[in-house]
Amino acid sequence: MPEESLTKIRLLQFMGDVKEEHQHLADRIMSAVASHLDEPIGVKIKINDTTIPVYKHQGDSGMDVRSVEKVVIAPGRTRMVRTGLYVEIPEGYEIQCRSRSGLATKGIVVSNSPGTIDSGYRGEANAILTNTSTETFTVEPGDRVAQWVLCKVEKCRFIACEKLSDSTRGEGGYGSTGTK
């Protein structure tokens, strides 16, 4: 049996022996190990009246998320669209809620794109859609309204200072590099 498989078995045996008060540490260990074994990260999901998001094609980074309700979005308006999905994301990761390209070409976009679903959040993970078109848009139950992408999150700490180091860009901001 390959060493990688033996490592997985040992970890699963270890996980079964973990006491409840140490479960958060065991979850972090499993998350770290899984990221190094080229296996998908396990995300727990609770569903109500919908289907589990899936990758449509090999190589896709986003999974389609469906609506569980009818929602009418007038031009220029923003509405919350329920998905019926609740997730438990491993610490160190987030799910980003992004616009679907097919809807974006019709003027329907995720308003706070990418929207973040934090690892500690346990409520229903909805999509906030804005209609930027001039036509009323109706979402029906079962319609694909957004896509989710699982992303690793790095933590930082800010260090107060009096001066930042110089760079070639300096303070050149929006539009400073021109359009051509």
Summarize the structure.
The chain has 180 residues and is of the alpha+beta class. It is 18% helix and 27% strand.
Note down, in words, how this protein is organized:
This protein has two domains: 1-39, no CATH class; 42-152, Deoxyuridine 5'-Triphosphate Nucleotidohydrolase, Chain A (Distorted Sandwich), CATH 2.70.40. The protein contains three helices and eleven strands; from the N terminus they run ααββββββαβββββ. It has helices at residues 3-16, 23-36, 101-104; strands at residues 44-47, 63-66, 71-73, 78-81, 85-88, 93-98, 108-110, 115-117, 127-131, 137-139, 144-152. A four-stranded antiparallel beta sheet has the order 2-11-6-8, with no helix packed on it.
What is the level-2 CATH architecture name of the largest domain? Distorted Sandwich
The CATH topology of the largest domain is what? Deoxyuridine 5'-Triphosphate Nucleotidohydrolase, Chain A
Number of strands: 11
Give the CATH superfamily of the largest domain. Answer: Deoxyuridine triphosphatase (dUTPase)
As a whole number of angstroms, the C-alpha radius of gyration is 21 Å
What would the average pLDDT be, to the nearest integer? 83
Distance between the termini: 57 Å
Which ranges are low-confidence, i.e. pLDDT below 50, for 5 or more consecutive residues?
none
The biggest beta sheet is recorded as: 4 strands, antiparallel
- The oligomeric state is single chain
Strand content: 25-35%
Number of helices: 3
